[in-house]
Design brief:
Largest sheet: 5 strands, mixed
Number of domains: 2
Protein name: DNA helicase Pif1-like 2B domain-containing protein
GO cellular component, one term: replication fork
Helix content: 10-25%
Radius of gyration: 20 Å
Number of helices: 4
InterPro entries: P-loop_NTPase (IPR027417), Pif1-like_2B_dom (IPR049163)
Organism: Vicia faba
Order of helices and strands: HEHEEHEEEEEEEEEEHEE
């Protein structure tokens, strides 16, 4: 599916979605996002966190196995802290969380719905303590409200993990970028869509391209398997949806 040239980013063009990076501008943090898959979102967030101003602080989680079920014959030696630290699961904060004051983050768990602290809520980090983080909400109905985020003991819900363990960590992820699925339902002034590979589900491309409020605010970067820029990507459509169309 070819994309309009005006929205594509040529190889020699400035690839910034917006002209400057200023963590303090609420409009930038509330309205500018990058749509990418999970791995690309992580790489982008780590890169932009590294070039930003301010002192970086790293928070490490405390991981421990839950009581093993008697019908599972698995040695406790397998569940070492070093092994548990390497586990990455959707909806679970990473063992190593790098933050700076002014960085946008996203909540991964419901904490207090009355305060607007729900899964998917975005905040700006304003203060970093050892056990508690202070932040300001930048999305939803509680924009501007100051809140405090504690460490929580979290258990992954991924059924592919054949055992239970707890991770005590701040329930946050750095949110300079988000996946296409996480962007559903949002209207953003500027959107940069990065597609290093084709989308894999019906409707994903539509969701990614329809988040922006105007064509002027949309930029798309598509690369092929060799890492070269292109203007073509595959749009997955289930043919069954057309069966009832007359």
């Amino acid at each position: 599916m070819p994309q309009p040239d005006r929205a594509l980013l040529p190889e020699r063009q400035n690839r910034l979605i917006y002209d400057e990076l200023n963590y303090d501008r609420r409009s930038l943090l509330e309205e500018h996002r990058i749509d990418a898959d999970i791995e690309e979102r992580k790489s982008f967030s780590e890169w932009i966190l590294g070039i930003g101003d301010g002192k970086e602080k790293t928070y490490l989680s405390y991981d421990s196995p839950c009581n093993a079920r008697s019908d599972i014959n698995m040695s406790d030696d397998v569940h070492t802290p070093e092994f548990l630290n390497t586990i990455v699961s959707s909806g679970l904060p990473n063992h190593k969380l790098k933050l700076k004051v002014g960085v946008p983050v996203m909540l991964l768990r419901n904490i207090d719905q009355s305060l607007g602290l729900c899964n998917g809520t975005r905040l700006i980090i304003t203060k970093m303590g050892r056990y508690v983080l202070e932040g300001k909400i930048i999305s939803g109905n509680n924009v501007g409200q100051k809140v405090f985020i504690p460490r929580l003991s979290l258990t992954p819900t991924d059924k592919r993990i054949p055992f239970k363990f707890q991770r005590r960590q701040f329930p946050l992820t750095v949110s300079f970028a988000m996946t296409i699925n996480k962007s559903q339902g949002q209207s953003l002034k500027y959107v940069g869509v990065y597609l290093p590979q084709s989308i894999f589900s019906h409707g994903q491309l539509y969701v990614a391209l329809s988040r922006v409020t105007s064509k002027k605010g949309l930029k798309i970067l598509i690369t092929n398997d060799e890492g070269e820029d292109t203007n073509v990507t595959e749009n997955v459509v289930y043919k069954e949806v057309f069966h009832n169309v007359r």
